Amino acid sequence: MDRGAWWATVHGVAKSRTGLSDFTFFLMELEGGKQKQQGRLILLNMRRSAAPSQLQGNPFKKPKFISPARSHPSPNEEVAKLNSDIKLFEVAANKNNFLQPQNDPRTCNFNLPTKECAKGINHGDNYREKYCLEASTKTTLDLHHTGTGYKLKELEKIEEGQTMMIGGKEIEVMGIISPDDFNSGRCFQFGGGCSAILSSSQAAKKCFSNPFKSVCKLSSKENKQNSFQSCKPRHDPYAPNSLVMLRPDKNHQWLFNKNCFPVVDVVIDPHLVYYLRPHQKEGITFLYECVMGMRVNGRCGAILADEMGLGKTLQCISLIWTLQCQGPYGGKPIVKKTLIVTPGSLVNNWKKEFQKWLGIERIKIFTVDQDHKVEEFTKSPFYSVLIISYEMLLRSLDQIKNVKFDLLICDEGHRLKNSTIKTTTALISLSCEKRIILTGTPVQNDLQEFFTLIDFVNPGILGSLSAYRKIYEEPIIISRQPSASEEERELGEQRAAELTCLTGLFILRRTQEVINQYLPPKIENVVFCRPGALQIALYRKLLNSQAVRFCLQGLLENTSHLICIGALKKLCNHPCLLFGSIKEKESNSTWDESEERNLYEGLMNVFPADYNPIMFTEEESGKLQVLSKLLAVIRELRPAEKVVLVSNYTRTLDILQEVCKRHGYAYTRLDGQTPISQRQQIVDGFNSKYSSDFIFLLSSKAGGVGLNLIGGSHLILYDIDWNPATDIQAMSRVWRDGQKHPVHIYRLLTTGTIEEKIYQRQISKQGLSGAVVDLSKTSDHIQFSVEELKNLFTLHESSHCVTHDLLDCECTGENHTGDSLEKLPVSRNCQLGPHQQKSDSLKPLSMSQLKQWRHFPGDHLNLTDPFLERIRENVSFFFQNITNQTTAI
Ligand SMILES: Nc1ncnc2c1ncn2[C@@H]1O[C@H](COP(=O)(O)OP(=O)(O)OP(=O)(O)O)[C@@H](O)[C@H]1O
Ligand SMILES: [Mg+2]
């Protein structure tokens, strides 16, 4: 419905913008909504609150109406009347979601004046206020709905200078408003004054306050009074493309507008709206409604769980900026101080994003680091946003508790999954009730962790932990057991559905698909690298060790298999890493009794006698050989492009760094040792087009989450983590907004080894049921059966690709050009409901989806990808998938 039609529906509006109260009521409701297209708009002047003596009219004014309405109706009657008004209003508003009317029926301002309200409005005899009244000439007045008590016929006769009684106030008709001003809505936006009837666009512009003027500074009485009197939206809610927040309903007003301020539209700064993607606009609206307590009665928490790179930061910045300058009640800002807690590497990224979107003047940001302590923030009224790392938060908790924060944002908040860990307890201890968790990784899987997150943002919403367990967790878990009866299954499903429904009100997740259209193509490759001869020999030896044999017989303690797994993983990265570990252990005094001794026994004999780990060669590791060739071909074919090289291990990064040095590649590095204060600088340096760095060495543990590394367009994941979320996080660093080049992602796996097994676990159903879908999970959390261990500790020497063997694929391994993955339903968006855990939707990629990727052996003749062509010699198999394919890559 267009704007004209909407006005036709709610014609007959009388409205006051007193600065202290902002009320609207409907004089009538149209039967068909179409009767009136043109009306008479009259500017009214409110003289004062009517004293009982005046209720019969002012004898000095003529002609006059005698109000048939009672001046002090009972609250119940008024609420009942209000409800019917609200219904009318809602009907009208619902017909047009975008155009939110300026005029809300208000409980306390109009129909139910409170003491404060009356006091605020009654400024004495000289106090005058202007009203706009649109009176239809064709419709009839529905007395039950108008709230005025006047009949339409009486209203039709209104002329300039007449007085009437509305809501216990004496009103004087001041003049006629032009249909243009009415249609544009301008007349409803003014704080008062004759400018309301000016229809020039200049006058219209003036009516919006300077968006960059700080409204928080209003301290003096005079300022306050002025601000109330000139209550108006900060930005034009009727401007094309304006993003207007939902107006609070009567319950909300009843709860949160005790002072009876006028309701003002909260409008997102057009400067920001210009850049926002559609999903971001939706996200900001969602966050606003959550923190304002509009979604769940009185609860002000939210979880924004958009996938990586969707701009959660910008959505929060828009929210902060809006709430810091605006509010629905009298325009008063909702938030004065905001606390943002984020991983160390992202502290300065947040600051940078604030500056990127809002410049340096609008909001004053304080970031905590070694040189900038929290005290500085607490002492200065200057700053409104504090950005701090989780680690620093713990250290400065006492000072932070002394500050009253109105909004708390926990970035990468999946780490708050356990209420007993220090960080979570610290954050819970902060009194701020508007809490937002941001996370790009799934937030469920474990029902208890799910509870912790939910209970953090909206404390108590699921009841106590013990009640939650009884009501939700137990029935849900029981219903999923194979032995569950039909009744138990049904109950579990119903509870799960209810839980999803309840929490879904304040959790929002969108998948990367929503920004695909803004991004360049992405070419993902899984590259199965043939192990080197030394690697195979060492691998065999390890598998034959006493430690592995004992593990398989279940003779060793629970954690022993982890040592074996660790050794195999090191070997896959490079034999010299294993060599280093053995040397280190040997020099340790406990070596003789350690389990490692059983594992490493005789291993040194497999290494050449003069083996020197410092002089390692590329040929000793299949993956390193591939990497080295890959870097060379990128350098050659795309000299202007850069590479992000990711590993989970610092020692592996040392080797990769050495490779860079040997080949003369300029590099930069970010790992756990990099001081927080330097991290953003390193990132910025790499992203700059003037940087000469070719390679960014990244530790996924230190910098896998949140970083923007769009300077690189090739990302190589050198090793694999048990947790797919870790890998996905790392891979999402380059394919993000701002990326100019097609993105190439290479995931290197050593053929036939444990790396393939981990990959299979990541993408198989087994991985799904194992608790490895969130970042806090490591292999320590995984329980392996003896069967699983047997599988893990097997080397498949003759297969090109065990993963392909398992796919049950009909192809002979000869360039299977599977359907594009995009054709398959990728239903990753449903991460929220515990009952959805059963579906594939939690996984980034499933076995069946992988099967749809293009795949072929390394020796395939027609490799069209020049990068793969160059490395094929050391590769046994490829999987490839292209997203957003345009023309040539
Ligand atoms: N509307 C937009 N237009 C252009 N760039 C944008 C827009 N929104 C976000 N960006 C940019 O996209 C990049 C990714 O955004 P951001 O870091 O907020 O993602 P995120 O959702 O927090 O991802 P992650 O989960 O990885 O932390 C940033 O460089 C940001 O400035
Ligand atoms: Mg982020």
What does it look like?
Belongs to the SNF2/RAD54 helicase family. This is Fibrinogen silencer binding protein. It comes from Bos taurus (Bovine). InterPro entries: Helicase_ATP-bd, Helicase_C-like, P-loop_NTPase, SNF2-like_sf, SNF2/RAD54-like_C, SNF2_N, SNF2_RAD54_helicase_repair. By secondary structure, this protein is an alpha/beta fold. The chain contains 39 helices and 22 strands. It has a nine-stranded mixed sheet with strand order 16-17-15-18-19-14-22-21-20, sandwiched between helices. The protein has a seven-stranded parallel sheet with strand order 9-10-8-11-12-7-13, sandwiched between helices. Helix 14 crosses helix 15 (347-358). The longest helix is centred in the N-terminal third of the chain and has 21 residues, at 75-95. The model is unreliable at 1-41, 45-147, 180-219, 765-778 and 819-843 (pLDDT under 50). Bound molecules: adenosine-5'-triphosphate and magnesium ion.
